[in-house]
Structures are given as structure tokens and as C-alpha cells.
Amino acid sequence: MKTLHYSIIAVTVLLLIPLMMNNPVKAGCLENANADWPSAPCYGCPGCIPSKEKQREEWNPYYQYKGANWMEMMKTQMIGAMKNGTLEDWVTSNDSNYNTWRYYYLNDQAPFFRSSVSGLNDEPHYIPPPLQQLKTGIESKDVACKMGLDLMIKTHDGLPVCVRYPTADILLQRGWAKEDISTLTSPDTIIMIPVNSSIRSNDFTFTPSVVKVVIGTNNTIRWINMDSVTNDITSSDVSFRSGLIESGYAWTHTFDTPGIYRYYGTIHPWLKGEVIVTSNPLINLKNDTGTITLGNQTYYFETPSYPSDAYSHPLQVSFHDVVFTLFPIGFRGGLPTSCGVQYYWTDTKFSDGTSESLHIFAGPNCPVPPLPTSFSKHANPQAGLTYYDGKMKLLVSK
Question: How many CA atoms lie within 13 A of 207 on its CB side?
Fold first, then answer.
């Protein structure tokens, strides 16, 4: 029996050797299955890695395999990791993160990094151009520049550029924003005092001259003096006053009462502006249940209670004839943690049998702007999902 057993093993090995030699890419993949995507391409040896274009073709089906909702959620996490400087840790933590990064990297929407797991160590460290970074969802103020380059932001359209110091100085004189990423990452609303606005004949004023802000969202205004001379800001009712703002410096003021606030410069009185402050309609959601009016539509709202394992065991909640499935199977993996963000996802099923998926981001520590409310396309009734005071809220129109 032993002789027969050894003979079977020997024959099996002899059959496998030519197979592996003819397919070296798969040869090193027999014991490294991708748990997130069983069909993932695997390149088993350094000399077997195809061109980036070929890899892109082989990895593009991953987007369809996971679905748009999942991929966009993961892209948001990845962007957060990019901003926090933790991209490599995020990518290497599990197969899902790695697969997401690889897909977006191969489609020029994520930076390259050197790592033993990237499989791409033959390439130099890659930081996408500023406009490419914008396409991935990164804001102008968060664009990363290569070493030795400074981030500059054009005042009139907010577009970023990475330049060396001499060029940065020239652009500053032409009205580009002086402050770099480290000083522009707050959620403040930015108003510029333009270059040469102190010359009355130029007919310049605050840029933008009128802003609308929402209390609790973006109600801190930051005025940046781009002019070469001192300026100041005073409200028409003298409810706020900046004092002197030297060239290149900024002054901030937080508005906590709704109203229309007009202001001007006492040094250069032709500089005039207006701030329109509105209240946050979601403040009515402080109760656990009730009604709220958003726009011209009134909604019933409910604060669902769910156990900690709801992220892995979907929970159904019936509310005004709409069935909400909290954290459905497609959610795949719980809450992202790359930036302290919370992510809520529910499937909604209506009495006519149609279904839609709703999802929102929340969490003050996340660099990605939150999406506070998500509504269905189903009109009668319309379902919604929102977040207030640390709690998820379900909405159904009256």
C-alpha cells in the first residue's frame, strides 16, 4: 500500500510541475487565495508581473464584483487614510482594503507606496498631480505636493497647484492663496481680502462678497488678508470688529445667531460684504421620535435601537409602512475607522415591493465632508436616513 501511495504522490507532482512551469503567475498563488475576491489576479513571481495597463484590465471587474456603493464607501476610507498619512497601514490591514487600493491605483486615482505587499516595488514613489487628486475627492486645501513644492490655491476658482518657492512668491503677488495645507484644513468658511483691493479704482471687494452659512456646520468665517497693506473688518451694527489685520494674516469670527450681517472695512470703506446665517433644521431631531420639516416636505422620524452585532447580523425596523434593514449583507464589514468616521447603511423596502439603499457618513473627526442626509428616489412615501447628536435617524415622508 505504501508503495502505491508514494507512486500516486510522485505522479501528481510530475503532472503539476509542467503546469506550474507553463503558468508561473499562478504557481505562487496556490496557497494565497484572496478572501475578498476569489477571482483576483495573482502574480506569483516578480518576473511575472504584467504592465500596469494589463493589470488595470484584469482588475477592473473588481468594481462590478463589489458594487458601486461598496467601492465608493471604501474610496472614502482610502482618501481619509491618504490625508492622515496612514495609507500603507490601511492598505495592508486586510484583503478588502488592498483590493480597493489596487483598483484605484491602477486607474490612477490612488498614490503608489513602497511595500513588500504592494507587488509594485519597481516603480518610484508616486504622488498624483493636483488635478488628479481633486478627481479622487480630495479638496483643494488637502492636496499633497511632492517634497520641495508648496501648495498654492488660486483665489477666484479655488484650484490648487504645486510650485517651487520663487514661483509661489510670484503667484502670491497675483492673488493666489498664501496659506498651505496645514492652515487650511479647518471647516471655516474662507473670505479673501484680494491683492490691491486697497486701491479704490480697482473696484475690488471681499471675495466672495456674500456667503451663506449654517449654524453648527460652517458658521465660522475666516477672512484672509491677501493685500500688501493692513485691512480691517467691522459690522454695520458694530456687533463684531476685527481690529487691524496685517498683510498675510487672518481673522475669524463665529456666528451663532441667524440673521443677515453686513460689514465693511473702516480703513478701506469701499470693501463691503454680507454674511447670511441660517439655523440648522436638523436640530429638531434632538428627540428620539417626532416630525421634522426639511425643505417643503414633512417627515416622521424615528431613532432605531440596535445591538452591537447589527453590523454583522442585519436588523429590520418597520416604520410607517417602510421596512428598513439596518446594515444589510452588502455592508460587508462594519464601520470604517481610518478617521473616526461612522458609516450608516440601510436597505429600504416600500409597500409596492420596490427597494432602495441609503447610506450616510457621520463623525466630526473625519476629513471627508459628512453627508448628513440621504433620501430615496421613491416619492410617495419618501424614505430618508440622517444623523444627529450621535444617533442614526430614520425618515418617512407624511
Answer: 20
The angle subtended at Cα 153 by Cα 148 and Cα 158, nearest 5°, is: 150
Instruction: Please report the pLDDT score of residue 359 as a whole number.
Output: 81
Residue-wise pLDDT for 105-141, tens only, equals: 888 777 665 444 444 444 444 566 777 666 555 666 6
Q: Which CATH number fits domain 188-278: 3.40.462.10, 3.30.1330.10, 2.60.40.420, 3.40.50.20?
A: 2.60.40.420
pLDDT exceeds 90 at position 394 = yes
pLDDT at 217 over 90: no
* Residues 234-257 pLDDT 10s: 999 889 999 999 887 889 999 988
Q: Is residue 285 scored above 50 in pLDDT?
A: yes
Long-range Cβ contact pairs of 197-201 (< 8 A, separation 24 or more): 197/227, 197/231, 197/268, 197/271, 198/227, 198/228, 198/229, 198/231, 198/267, 198/268, 200/268, 200/270
Contacts 24+ apart (CB under 8 A), 363-370: 363/339, 364/340, 365/339, 365/340, 365/341, 366/80, 366/339, 366/340, 366/341, 367/79, 367/80, 367/83, 367/84, 367/142, 367/185, 367/339, 368/76, 368/79, 368/80, 368/137, 368/339, 368/341, 369/139
What gap in Å lies between CA 13 and CA 17, rounded to an integer?
A: 6
Backbone angles phi and psi of 74, in degrees to 5: -70, -35
Phi and psi at 80, nearest 5°, equal: -60, -40
Place of cell 436616513: 385
CA pair distance 165, 161, nearest whole angstrom: 12
**Residue where the block lists cell 452591537:** 308
Q: Grid coordinates in use for 367?
A: 476629513
Of 181-185, 214-218, 264-268, which gets the smallest average pLDDT?
181-185
The model scores a pTM over 0.90: no
Query: Using 50, 70 and 90 to split pLDDT, how confident is the model at 181?
Result: very low
C-alpha 85: how far from chain center: 14
Give, in order, the Cα–Cα distances in Å from 188 to each of 139, 185, 315.
14, 8, 38
Q: Looking at residue 242, what is its pLDDT?
A: 93
| φ, ψ of residue 391 in degrees (nearest 5) | -130, 145
